[in-house]
Amino acid sequence: MVRISEIQLFNLLKPKLGDMEAEAIVDYINLRFNDHTNELYKNFVTKEDLLKSESRLNSRISLLDTRISETKSDILRWVVGIFIVTMMAIIGLYFK
User: Within the chain, where are the H helices?
Assistant: First the structure.
C-alpha cells in the first residue's frame, strides 16, 4: 500500500485539474478521513471507561451477595420452622 501526503496528492492532481480543484479534492478527502476517524474513536474504550464499569459491576456484585445472604437466612428460618412443626406433628401423632 502506497501512502502519500496531502502535498504529494495535491501536486499529482494540480497539473490535470488545476490549483483550486486539486485543493478542493484534497480538502474533501481530508475532511472525510477525519470524519471517519472520529467515528472510529467514538467506539474506543479507555481505561477510565473500564474502571468505571468495573466499579459499577463490583457494587452490583456486592449488592447481589447481600441479597443472596439475606435470602439464605430467610430460607433457613422457614426450613427450621417447618421442621419443628413437622416434628411436633409426628410426636403428637405418636402419643395419640
Answer: 6-17, 19-42, 47-95
What is the phi-psi region of residue 76: left when phi exceeds 0, alpha when psi lies from -120 to 50, beta otherwise?
A: alpha
Half-sphere exposure of 3 (CA within 13 A, CB side): 1
The answer to whether residues 26 and 18 touch, using CB atoms and an 8 Å cutoff, is no
Longest dimension (CA), the chain: 115
Whether the CB-CB separation of 10 and 26 falls below 8 Å is answered with yes
Each residue's pLDDT tens digit, 17-74: 888 888 888 888 888 888 788 777 777 888 898 999 999 999 999 999 999 988 998 9
> What distance in Å separates the CA atoms of residue 18 and residue 92, rounded to the nearest whole number?
108
The cell numbers describing 26, all together, are 484534497
Residue 62 pLDDT = 94
Give Cα separations from 95 to 7, 38, 64, 88 (angstroms): 105, 84, 46, 11
Q: What pLDDT is attached to residue 1? A: 57
